[in-house]
Amino acid sequence: MSINPILNLQDVSISYRTEHILKNISLQAQRGIFYALTGLNGSGKTSLFKSIIRNIKYQGKIYIEGNDIQSLSTREMAQKVALLSQHNFISIPLTVWEITLMGRYPYRPTFWEYNQEDIERCKYALAITQTDTLKHKKIQDLSGGEAQRVWLAQKIAQNTPLLLLDEPTQHLDIRQKKLFFNLLHDIIQNENKTVIMSTHNLDEIKHIKGTLWHLHERAISVIQDYSPQQIDEVIEKLLQS
């Protein structure tokens, strides 16, 4: 186990009322690695993400870059971890550029004071997600797949070392999924980001190298450097559950 993991969970348990969703989970995530988080509905994938960003109560300890997350301010947390949710909605008719700029808020005193570094990071985020041509469109006028890439651009603009993706390919077509996984490969390899992605579709992760975290019966199994054959074995177990 690394002495300097980007994420370190120690005996983390999550309960709703008297029922344990996850119990005594201990995990480490290293820098520059892709992690696929899998499990049946209700296995605790989203709950695990919510605990990492302090959106729900948990028992145990969670560290990001060696810091207990309970000791960090909201702004400090937003500089270390970003979560792309399954469903993203905003009622205000903001443009794609304005949505992307929001990712820079953790580094700025107000929403409207941006420097050249912020501008360049947002341009990069739009370019790498191939949404730069949508820059002046309203987010409400985009297709589901386009909007999802814009929200991802916002998280890339946020420039955190840890990126959590909660079933991000749900609204993407085949072409968009290929683009999406190429993008993940680029930011992991070129920027040394750690990406943890929850998914129900295990077939889609067969061609991206990484580690599998499989949640089942309130516990977790870890398969490092998984192979397509190992993914098929997990799928078979899920079908038999």
Verbal overview:
- The protein has a single domain (31-57, 72-240), classed as Rossmann fold (3-Layer(aba) Sandwich).
- The chain is built from seven helices and ten strands.
- It has helices at 45-52, 74-78, 96-101, 116-128, 144-158, 174-191, 228-240, and strands spanning 7-16, 19-29, 34-38, 59-64, 67-68, 81-84, 162-166, 194-198, 211-216, 219-223.
- Strand 9 and strand 10 (219-223) form a beta hairpin.
- Helix 4 (116-128) packs antiparallel against helix 5.
- The mean pLDDT is 91.
In short:
With 241 residues, this protein is an alpha/beta fold. The chain has helices spanning 45-52, 74-78, 96-101, 116-128, 144-158, 174-191, 228-240, and strands at residues 7-16, 19-29, 34-38, 59-64, 67-68, 81-84, 162-166, 194-198, 211-216, 219-223.
End-to-end gap: 31 Å
Cα shape: globular
Strand content: 15-25%
Structural class: alpha/beta
The CATH architecture classification is 3-Layer(aba) Sandwich
Could you give a short account of the major beta sheet? Answer: 6 strands, mixed
Low-confidence stretches: none
**Mean pLDDT reading:** 91
Q: Rg from C-alpha positions?
A: 18 Å
- What is the strand tally? 10
**Number of helices, counting only DSSP H or I runs of 4 residues or more:** 7
Q: What is the helix fraction of residues, given as a range? A: 25-40%
Number of domains: 1
Strand order, main sheet: write it out: 6-7-8-3-9-10
Fourth CATH level, the homologous superfamily: P-loop containing nucleotide triphosphate hydrolases
SSE topology string: EEEHEEHEHHHEHEEEH
Topology-level CATH name: Rossmann fold
CATH class term: Alpha Beta
